[in-house]
Amino acid sequence: MEDLVVENLFSGNNQVQIQAATQLSKLSSKQRHRLAERGIISPLVSMLQSQDFEAIQASLLALLGLAFGSERNKTRIVKAGIMPILLSLLQCQSEELVELTIAAMLILSSCTANKLAIASSGAIQLLVEILNNNVTCLSLQARLDTIATLQNLSTCHQIIPSIASSGVIYSLLQVIHFSDKSTELTEKAMALLETIVSSSDDSIHETAAIGGAIRIIVEAVEEGSVQCKEHAVGILLNICQSCREKYRGLILREGVMPGLLQLSVDGTWRAKSMARELLLLLRDCSNYGSTSKQSKHELMEQIMQAIDADGEKVAGSTLRLVEEMITKLST
């Protein structure tokens, strides 16, 4: 069976190759990896240049099977020259092939050795354009895969400036704005946005300058999943730390205090820490950083004074929430 698959893939006959690629997908992981050692990646990559939908689909699925769970095969596939072909497929008219191509990029980008090659191919700009232009057209899985691919690439610090300058910040904010704040999609978008924002002051200022951006992030603090809230408060903290005088008032005006108070008690360990640090930054005083030895009770009382001083319109329910937070923090 294995010998026949190899022979058919190298045969050059379109239908025979399609059949072999389809059979390859049905083989065990050990068999597929054994065949990769025999050079079948090259004819599979060549099949992607066919004008035949079935051939492209069968080849992509076979390559996905070879890449899954094998760092060596992921590297081989990229070295075989697949990236220019994948970029071309990203621009084809078939949504199914576009989504399969994004899935292939996701798997290939998870390999450290491939990241720079993928980034230098021009993939980042195309992925951002797809996310931006098809924010409501792509399937949920495809949008998740697109963001996850960019997140994979962002783990290489050399690549982050390219991602940040691609226009992705606006695209991510659009995804977050138009999605339910508690979904995995919003969580992934917020995680990538935090990675980008924490990379440079330019990214911080670009994010804050986008109309409605701070409001969108504050809404995520209030309505997001546990992880989404953590990333959202991290973004706000980065923004405020970059220039407290410029951004403190903008953040306060979006009504962030109730969400921060809640997060300072009920969030993840990291979210609690960042929420409390942001609360200190938002206080109307000049001695930030001098209260580290003060009790939590005193800290929260000062936060309440800051709210009053800032003229926040605090409803009765919010006051009860704050009192609850102070009680919890003081135990």
TrEMBL record:
Gene3D superfamilies xref list: Leucine-rich Repeat Variant
Sorted keywords for this record are: Repeat, Ubl conjugation pathway
The record ties this protein, via InterPro entries, to: ARM-like (IPR011989), ARM-type_fold (IPR016024), ARM_PUB (IPR058678), Armadillo (IPR000225)
Pfam families for the chain: Arm (PF00514), ARM_PUB (PF25598)
Q: Does the keyword Repeat apply?
A: yes
- Report whether Membrane shows up as a keyword of the record: no
Domain U-box, which positions? 120-290
Coiled coil (UniProt feature)? none
Q: What is this protein called?
A: Armadillo
In which organism is this protein found?
Corchorus olitorius
